[in-house]
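Annex B.
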Amino acid sequence: GRDLFNQTVDLVFFDTTTSYFEGEGAKELSQYGYSRDHRPDRVQVVIGLLMRQDGIPIAHEV
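Transposase IS4 family protein: predicted structure tokens.
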């Protein structure tokens, strides 16, 4: 295994998803882009989650 964030891990998973906004929030984090929700008229953010093999979250990124 490898020492990652003070945890010994052999395998990690990184998953991302997007979410769009209806209002005026998160301007510094959001941008226009390809929308799987079929809402190209709305800004969106990308959210990422890093997990250990047993599903325990290690880190996230917005």
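Strands lie at 2-4, 7-9, 12-20, 44-52, 57-61. The chain has a mean pLDDT of 87. Further annotation is deferred to the next reporting cycle.
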